[in-house]
Amino acid sequence: MMRKAITMTLAGALALAAAPLGAQDMSVFKPGPVLTEFGAHAPVPGVGQLPADTEFAIAFDVATPAGESGPNRGFDSAARFLNMHVAHGVPQENIRLVVVVHGKASLELLTNAAHAASPLSRQGDNPSAKLVEVLLEADVRFILCGQSAAANGIK
Q1: How many structural domains comprise the chain?
Q2: Torsion, CA 93, CA 97, CA 98, CA 101, rounded to 10
Q3: Quick one: 137 exposed, middle or buried, by C-beta within 10 A (0-12, 13-18, 19+)?
Q4: Confidence band (pLDDT; 50, 70, 90) for 117?
Q5: Are the CB atoms for 106 and 49 separated by under 8 Å?
């Protein structure tokens, strides 16, 4: 009887904890102002403009490959960081971003043709190709781990 009561209490607590997840409004997330297709971010109440002389030098470490639903979330985090800080008054030239790529995520730096030809690729086209392209155009730097390049046959 005690075990059933504990189980019911835990189930109820989990249901309450999950309730806010169902109420999330993802429609408030919008891309831009720098990258118009990626890096969606939401306004945060109480967060104003940052001083125009603010500078950032940030490295993103990405080893997890993209899922089935789109480009690499780690790469998109760099896009979001860029968009949300420019939206809050930091000049783009004051933001230096580097994405360090390891492991299976390494394949997402390949062109679509090279990605499709790789025996290690799960799918044809690279799901992150367009995102990598626009990040490079925005002066985001990518660094591929040499060990990961060797392990994945990337030259």
Answers
A1: 1
A2: -140
A3: exposed
A4: confident
A5: no
Q: Bigger pLDDT: 139 or 7?
A: 139
Q: Is 47 a domain residue?
A: no
Give the number of other CB atoms < 10 A from CB of residue 83: 23
In the block, residue with structure tokens 């190709």: 129
Give the H/E segment covering residue 64: none
Query: What is each CA distance from 129 to 29, 46, 71, in whole angstroms?
Result: 22, 35, 8
Q: What is the mean pLDDT of residues 14-20?
A: 51
> Domain range spanning residue 86?
25-42+52-151
Tokens 């420019």 sit at which residue? 86
Mention every residue, 6+ apart, whose C-beta is less than 8 A from residue 30.
40, 41, 42
pTM: 0.82
Comparing C-alpha atoms, which of 124, 145, 126 is closest to residue 63?
A: 145
pLDDT digits (tens, 9 = 90+) for 78-87: 999 999 999 9
Residue reference for tokens 């990598």: 132
- Closest by Cα among 72, 78, 82 to 33: 82
